[in-house]
Structure formats: C-alpha cells, structure tokens
Amino acid sequence: MLMAGRGRLVPCVCLGLFGILCWVWVSFASFPDDQLPLEALDAVERGAFQPQSALSEMEFASISSYRGPGNSDRRSNKELPILLWWSGGLFPHFPGDTERIDCASSSCLATSNRKVQLYKRTVSIIFYGTDFRAYEAPLPRLRHQTWALFHEESPMNNYVLSHGPGIRLFNYTATFRRESDYPLTLQWLPSLDYLLAPVAVSLEEKNRLRREGLAAVLYMQSHCDVPSDRDRYVQELMKYIQVDSYGKCLNNKPLPQHLEDTATATGEERTFMNFVARYKFQLALENGLCPDYMTEKLWRPLHQGCIPVYRGSSVVADWMPNNHSAVIIDHFPSPKALAEFLKRLDENDDEYTKYLEFKNPKGITNARLLEALETREWGVNDMSKPNYLNGFECYVCDHENARLAAERAHRKAPKENPPPQPKMANNSHMGCPLPSPGYGHVQDLHADDGWLQTWPQDYWQSLDQAEGLESLIRHNKSNPLLLWKHIQNMAVSRARGKP
C-alpha cells in the first residue's frame, strides 16, 4: 500500500560514478489525485521451467551513504519521474513496492505498483525478459513512455526477443550481448582472481585416477530437452571416447550418495566442485546458442583447472583468458575428430598443461577480458559495487531524465534545441539464431523427433507473437488479448498464399 507523509531510512543500491551502494531516505511515495491510474492488474503465476540465472546467486548488501557527484537533484518524490518494474517477481529493492533512487546524475522513483501505469510521470516501464509475454503487454503503449528490457537468462526463455519485431519494442536493453546498452556479458565471472585460482586437482592426481578407470571427460547435465540439443552431440561423442555422465541426461554413472543433492551443479559447494575437478575435461554445452551467451558451464571448469570442451557462444574466443584455454567444439568437423583430439591431449602432459598456463597472471593475454573486468560498473558478489539490476535501473533513470530535459528545452526554444532522437534496440542487442540439431542436419531428423517438434516451432511461433504485438501497438490497441486474433489472421493469410 502506498502511503503519504511517512518515511524511513532503507537500503537501496544506487549506481554512482564510482558504483557504490547506499543508504537513502525514502518517503513512501504518494501520487497526485489528478493522475488517474488503472486498476491494479492481477499477478499471473507461471509454472514454466526457468533455467538457472546468475541472479539466483547474487548477494545484496548496503554500505555507507552515497550520491553520484553529478547528481544535484533535490526534487521531492512527488516531482520525480517514475520507473515501473512490470515483472511482479522482480523488484530490486526491499521492503515495500516503491523507492526513491539517487543515481549518477539524477533521481527517480522506482516502483512495482502497476496502478501507476498510465501516470504522466511514469516515463519508463522495465521488463524482465523471461517474464515478458506479448499477450500480457501493458497496452495501449503511451507515447510518453519508453520500454526497457533486462534479460540475462538463456535465449530459450523467450524467443520473442530474438526477432526484430520483438526487440524493437524496447528503447533500452541490458542483456548478455555486448552490443546491448548495459552489457551483462561476464555476469557469471566474479573476478580475475576467480580465473587465477590454483588448479583444484593436480595433473599427477588426474593421471593416477585415469589409470584407475576414471574417464578423461565429464558430462554433468540434468536439463535434457533444450534448444541447443546438446545431448544428441554428446551421445555421438560417446561412441569415440569414454565420457562419465552423472546427471539425468545420458546418465551412465551414479553420483556418490553424499553428492546427490548437488547433482544439477547449480552451486559451488566445495565437495562437489572437488569431485568434478578430478576430470581432465568437462563438457560445457549451453542450453541455447547465441553470441556472448556464456554461463557458469564455461567459467567454473576454468576456475577449477579442468579444460572446458565448449559449445555455446559463437564468439567465446573473444572472452577467453588466452587463445589456448578452452577446446571449442565448433572448431572440429565431427564428434569423432574432437574425440581424437581429446585423446591426444590426455596422453600428452606437456600439451595438456599448455591449456592451464592462464593460471599464471602473465598467461592471461586477452586485453578485452581484462578491460571488461576492470571497467564494469557492477560487481558479482562484490560488496563495493552495485549489482547489475540496480545499475541498469539507474542507467534508465539517468537517460530518461536527460530525455525529459531535452524535451523541455525543445519546447522552450525549438529552433535552438532539436528534439531528442528516439532510441530503439535492434537484433544485435539480443537476436539469437534459429535452433539447429546438436548433431547432423535437420532434414535428416524423423518427423516425430521430440526436439524438432518443440524448438524450431517455438522459435517461429515467437515471431508471430512479436509481429502481432508490434501491430497492436502500431494500431493503438488497448486489449492484448487481440493478439491471438491477429496471429490467426496471419495464419489464414499464409494459407491463402498472401504475405
């Protein structure tokens, strides 16, 4: 409930020039009576499986008071522009549903209360990509409002965002793509020291375990039906090299009983990590393939001193410690060729050790990686920096205040001050390719193949939804349920041979 005339000191995370968390005085926001809101919309619970997010491991904390050196905003809460977090389960403040945020150069009110959707002061709506559904979009879209997208999770969570009509709906973006406005590319890499951690199990010990029958290659996966179709590739690879598979997918070996609770490898519990680190190679295949989409599947083996055998981001080499620290699956013409290469490395200690030279600080030669870790404004479990949720929120706040100032200047002196140019995201901010089989060609798959019936269809149906929502917005429609009628009309047009 929103209340007027009361306040308290609460923790929030504000992005200043130096990226510091802060304590700020927050008044319970009150909204003017002359701005009539919509009735609050009921929250919709979703039961769909959501792959792990780096957010699940992020720690939140607060330290001493701080305001950005460029922020001289002394407006009262009733005068500040409002940012509305549309996803009911994601509001990066506590407690309550409305907070004042003081950012690098300006201030805003951030809220999750949907009653403010139609307020004149509500200048931007922030969406969490996994929860964004075309049929639940806040319509009509108001001319004075921008839309902002925060989506750090797998592309499989919402293929609407991988199509031009979908991503063009947004003015600001924070995604794993380096081209987004607020890139989250290295969200799973805590620090340089994480990479430099000593090898958890020595090569001598790994060789001893190999002689006792431990496979050279580990596969640990319990989410089996995914767009990257990784199990199909691993199944073919298993024909040519021994792979110990402990998860639910392609399981051929039971986990020790004391490790069963961590079978999905979603944490870094020491006993489990040491168990995994015994292997020379770890298959690290993402659930979705997209440039710059890299998760813990890549960084944890590097941290432990295993060699990741990787498939995921097509540009992963841009972010590796050096050009000799991971085995990239797509560099090999077949699973058989990859298996032969891994066998050669397994049998040659000198060649194997070259892949671990990055553990010496001088062995990290990738300037792009070093610069990105040094300059990023947000931290991963680093209490001296904000988390990226609040960082992006402040990014939107500062840019919206700048846009409003430019509009006021234009109205006051249109000849001297041009209007602010509209900002629109494009495919480079998120766009991910059509899923393809993990091994072989799509035309060779049987018609009733489960993967074929699921992910390519999901990809193209998402395009229909994106085009439908874009059309509703263009025609200023207020009922998102009209989306289904629009999609049906498109299907009928296609059936009749019309574009």
From TrEMBL:
<keyword id="KW-0328">Glycosyltransferase</keyword>
<keyword id="KW-0735">Signal-anchor</keyword>
<comment type="similarity">
    <text>Belongs to the glycosyltransferase 10 family.</text>
</comment>
<keyword id="KW-1015">Disulfide bond</keyword>
<keyword id="KW-0325">Glycoprotein</keyword>
<dbReference type="GO" id="GO:0046920">
    <property type="term" value="F:alpha-(1-&gt;3)-fucosyltransferase activity"/>
</dbReference>
<dbReference type="InterPro" id="IPR017176">
    <property type="entry name" value="Alpha-1_3-FUT_met"/>
</dbReference>
<comment type="function">
    <text>Protein O-fucosyltransferase that specifically catalyzes O-fucosylation of serine or threonine residues in EMI domains of target proteins. Attaches fucose through an O-glycosidic linkage. O-fucosylation of EMI domain-containing proteins may be required for facilitating protein folding and secretion.</text>
</comment>
<keyword id="KW-0256">Endoplasmic reticulum</keyword>
<dbReference type="InterPro" id="IPR031481">
    <property type="entry name" value="Glyco_tran_10_N"/>
</dbReference>
<dbReference type="GO" id="GO:0000139">
    <property type="term" value="C:Golgi membrane"/>
</dbReference>
<protein>
    <recommendedName>
        <fullName>GDP-fucose protein O-fucosyltransferase</fullName>
        <ecNumber>2.4.1.-</ecNumber>
    </recommendedName>
</protein>
<keyword id="KW-0472">Membrane</keyword>
<dbReference type="GO" id="GO:0046922">
    <property type="term" value="F:peptide-O-fucosyltransferase activity"/>
</dbReference>
<dbReference type="InterPro" id="IPR055270">
    <property type="entry name" value="Glyco_tran_10_C"/>
</dbReference>
<keyword id="KW-0808">Transferase</keyword>
<feature type="domain" description="Fucosyltransferase N-terminal">
    <location>
        <begin position="80"/>
        <end position="183"/>
    </location>
</feature>
<keyword id="KW-0812">Transmembrane</keyword>
<feature type="region of interest" description="Disordered">
    <location>
        <begin position="410"/>
        <end position="437"/>
    </location>
</feature>
<dbReference type="InterPro" id="IPR001503">
    <property type="entry name" value="Glyco_trans_10"/>
</dbReference>
<dbReference type="Pfam" id="PF00852">
    <property type="entry name" value="Glyco_transf_10"/>
</dbReference>
<dbReference type="Pfam" id="PF17039">
    <property type="entry name" value="Glyco_tran_10_N"/>
</dbReference>
<dbReference type="GO" id="GO:0005789">
    <property type="term" value="C:endoplasmic reticulum membrane"/>
</dbReference>
<feature type="domain" description="Fucosyltransferase C-terminal">
    <location>
        <begin position="216"/>
        <end position="365"/>
    </location>
</feature>
<comment type="pathway">
    <text>Protein modification; protein glycosylation.</text>
</comment>
<keyword id="KW-1133">Transmembrane helix</keyword>
<dbReference type="InterPro" id="IPR038577">
    <property type="entry name" value="GT10-like_C_sf"/>
</dbReference>
